[in-house]
Specification:
Elements: E1 7-12, H1 19-31, E2 37-42, H2 49-60, E3 63-66, H3 72-85, E4 90-95, H4 104-118, E5 122-128, H5 134-145, E6 150-154, H6 163-172, E7 175-180, E8 188-190, H7 193-200, H8 206-218, H9 220-232, H10 237-250, H11 254-257, H12 271-274, H13 278-289, H14 293-297, H15 304-314, H16 318-340, H17 342-347
Parallel strand pairs: 1-4, 1-5, 2-3, 2-4, 5-6, 6-7
Antiparallel strand pairs: 7-8
Helix pairs in contact: 1-2, 3-4, 4-5, 5-6, 9-10, 10-13, 13-15, 15-16
Length: 353
């Protein structure tokens, strides 16, 4: 955790190193530990960078600031100032990266201006684990532009072995603080030297596994919302939203469906509904976030006109909204079955014996 609050982090690195994704992961990591976090998009070079970070901010449930065009350092300065004024305790600034050494002179000069404008408490260098010995030169050049406080090694989930990260540490004197182990927003772990060496040798990382288990246990608070609704025999879009958020971490709620005699249901719950894909979950969360309070509490009032408005507001289609409503009605049918057969609730531990 930061040594003091508020705390400003400036992310630097070459294009393709995974800075924007890492910014979202860091936001989620610190937010889940009780800090009010804000993300600033200061990448004015890469098309889509602003929208990508905005989406990640929504997924992480943190504040966001971005401008479509302008001087990157001025955008960063305004963003940090605004988010701090809104109560952010930790602000992460995502910056531009460019390919190859030909672009580095301009990039490093921009980083100097950025550091002067933002005056960060910490500069994080984001390095792709697959680049090997190139990490030495990249880390050294960035260090000349602005002191590197810590390093994030990304893409440690594939064949990359992370030797480049160690070269970067030797070049800058900075420490590896986090490692990215996958594409999902929760797949960021504090760096553990023993675990890192174990991964390099192909032995896995038991500590990281235990940390993932602890995070899953913490997610039970969200699951509790679903359980309470089930026990009371009610369901709203708020219930569905909590369920979908849980699915993103814990997987489909097979604990419910594997005990349910679905053959007797008038609406069949097939594999497509049981094993919801990440893309579908993302769409449905956006759809629910575009609903009014009235619609969240009583989805049955959603008619064709409301569907069109919700689809427009969530960037989806009317068909997507209809599909979500079909799923909602399926869950209602399942809950009615639970209410008729109290033994199912007892087997799930949702009611007293």
């Amino acid at each position: 955790m930061p040594r003091k609050l508020p705390w400003v982090i400036l992310l630097v690195g070459v294009q393709g190193s995974g800075k924007t994704t890492t910014a979202g992961k860091l936001a989620r990591y610190y937010s889940s530990r009780g800090l009010r976090v804000g993300l600033v998009s200061a990448d004015t070079y890469r098309p889509g960078a602003l929208e990508q970070l905005k989406t990640l901010a929504q997924q992480a449930g943190v504040m966001f600031y971005g401008e479509q065009s302008g001087q990157a350092e001025e955008i960063a300065k305004r963003g940090v100032s605004e988010l701090l004024s809104k109560g952010a305790q930790l602000v992460i600034v995502d910056t531009a990266g460019r390919h190859g050494y030909g672009d580095e002179a301009g990039l490093l000069e921009e980083m100097k201006r950025m550091a002067e404008a933002v005056r960060p408490d910490e500069v994080m260098l984001v390095i792709d684990a697959a680049i090997g010995q190139r990490a030495y030169d990249i880390a050294r050049r960035f260090h000349e532009a602005t002191p590197v406080g810590s390093i994030v090694v990304t893409k440690l989930d594939g064949t990359a072995r992370g030797g480049g990260a160690l070269s970067a540490v030797a070049a800058t004197g900075a420490r590896v603080k986090f490692v990215g182990t996958g594409e999902k927003i929760e797949e960021l772990e504090p760096f553990n030297p023993q675990g890192f060496v174990a991964r390099v040798m192909g032995l896995g990382d038991i500590r990281a596994l235990l940390e993932r288990v602890r995070e899953a246990e913490a997610e039970e608070k969200a699951v509790k919302v679903v359980e309470e609704d089930i026990a009371k025999g009610r369901v709203t879009m708020r219930t569905i939203y909590a369920q979908l958020k849980s699915i993103r971490r814990l997987g489909p709620l097979s604990k419910l469906l594997e005990m349910l005699p679905t053959a007797s249901l008038p609406i069949k719950v097939g594999d497509e509904q049981v094993k919801l894909g990440e893309e579908k979950i993302r769409k449905w969360l956006h759809i629910i976030e575009s609903m009014t309070y009235e619609e969240l509490d009583d989805p049955d009032i959603i008619d064709r006109s409301r569907m069109r408005r919700i689809a427009l507001g969530s960037g989806t289609t009317v068909a997507d909204v209809k599909e979500l409503l079909t799923y909602y009605r399926s869950v209602k049918v399942i809950l009615k079955r639970f209410r008729r057969d109290r033994s199912l609730l007892r087997r799930l531990g949702l009611t007293e014996e």
